[in-house]
Amino acid sequence: MTEEVQQTLSSHEGTRRSHKVPGLGVEIAPFRIPFHRRLETFAILQWTLTFLIGGFGLTFFSLYLLFTSYYWVSFLAYTWIIIDRWTPSQGGRRFSWSRRWKIWEHMRNFFPVELHKTADLDPNQNYIIAFHPHGILAVGAFIHFGTEATGFSKLFPGIKPSLLILRGWFFFPFLRDYVMIAGLCDSSKNSVDYLLSKNGVGNAACLVIGGARETLDMEPGKHRVLLNRRKGFIKKAMEHGASLVPVYSFGESDIYDSTCNVPGSKMRKLQEFLMKFTGFSLPIFHGRGIFNYTMGIIPYRRRINTVVGKPIPVVKNPNPTKTEVEDMHTIYVDALKALFDEHKTKYGISEDISLEII
To answer: By 3-state DSSP, what share of the chain in percent is helix, strand and coil, each rounded to 5?
Structure first.
């Protein structure tokens, strides 16, 4: 545990003196709290708003500008999207300085979030880093692979992580360039191919395997990952001979209270329909607010410990058969379960709890 994270934990334990509003059950945050906690709340608020409403909000704003004297701003923004449309699938446009912004350290300290290494990664190879679970905001994935707040480059020197997200993000004006400077790329097959074959060595294509659909099955306290039918990343690893690195983020599913709707229910059907139509899932969840600890869109201050497992060597096979992919998938699932079992008790999970694969 780093000294900064230890200080943050001590601060969290020593400054929470809230009170409840009689009759409402709302726990109000204290007025006087350390300034660094205000900064931490601001940091996670900006990411929460970016993740949840940034894309559509900026799209509506750009459409509004078309009917004002600033119409040319939107015209330039959409022209740029067309001109620059291939960049997200060709390594993106990362800037190292933006990955080291102080705001990401405040965001890390809000929970706090820590990254734990179990083995070295050879910078002369390429990797597919498979992150589980998605959670609501994929906070761990972004902080570890989209910033240097948890020291990825120090833990894995020579490895350049590229977090892959839905291609739809790169059609949102303004937002697309904001996420690209952090090294984010689209999650298309072409993007993975580029990172693993046309960008040299030392590349890590970081995928949140469960994706948006996994959030619909998420429940606090449950350790459930969507993986049984997720085999595309296995096939890509085999095609390029890229080692597979299982990653499990303990606490990722606990930073919000959420409801898992039973498959087949009316609400679940509606959620799946909207996800099919938009590409984004709409889970039912809530966290805390800016000035209260009971209700809001900000996640709770709960620790996240992300463990990076040992790389699984993969022999290059440009045309793997279905059976070969299935066999490699089984090896990967076993490795992920072993990683979970080896580290679960360190992070408050009972020995008799197993990882649920769906």
So the answer is: 45, 15, 40
What are the φ and ψ backbone dihedral angles of 345, each rounded to 5 degrees? Answer: -70, -20
Which residue has tokens 């299935």?
326
Q: Is the peptide bond before 133 cis (omega within 30 degrees of 0)?
A: yes
> Which residues are paired to 247 by β-bridges?
131, 308
Burial class (CB in 10 A: 0-12, 13-18, 19+), 65: middle
Distance CA 3, CA 80 (A): 43
| Cα separation, 281 vs 212, whole angstroms | 5
C-alpha 279/C-alpha 56 separation (Å) is 13
pLDDT at 2: 56
Q: What is the pLDDT of residue 10?
A: 45
Phi and psi angles of residue 265, each rounded to the nearest 5 degrees, phi first: -70, 160
Query: Residue 261: what pLDDT?
Result: 64
**Residue 28: phi, psi to the nearest 5?**
-85, 135
Question: Within 10 Å of residue 278's Cβ, how many Cβ atoms?
Answer: 13
**In the numeric block, which tokens belong to residue 161?**
């992580």
Mean pLDDT by 10 residues, the chain (358 residues): 51 52 64 87 93 91 95 96 95 92 96 96 96 90 96 96 93 94 93 91 94 78 89 96 96 82 69 66 76 84 96 95 95 96 92 90
Contacts of 41 (CB under 8 A, 6+ apart): 110, 290, 298
Q: What confidence score (pLDDT) does residue 269 get?
A: 73
**How far is CA 223 from its chain centroid?**
16
| Whole-number pLDDT of residue 16 | 53
DSSP state of 354: -
Per DSSP, the residues of 223-285 read: -EE--TT--HHHHHHHHHTPEEEEEEEETGGGSSEEE-PPTTSHHHHHHHHHHHHHS----EE
Q: What is the pTM of this model?
A: 0.86
Contact 181, 139 (CB under 8 A): no
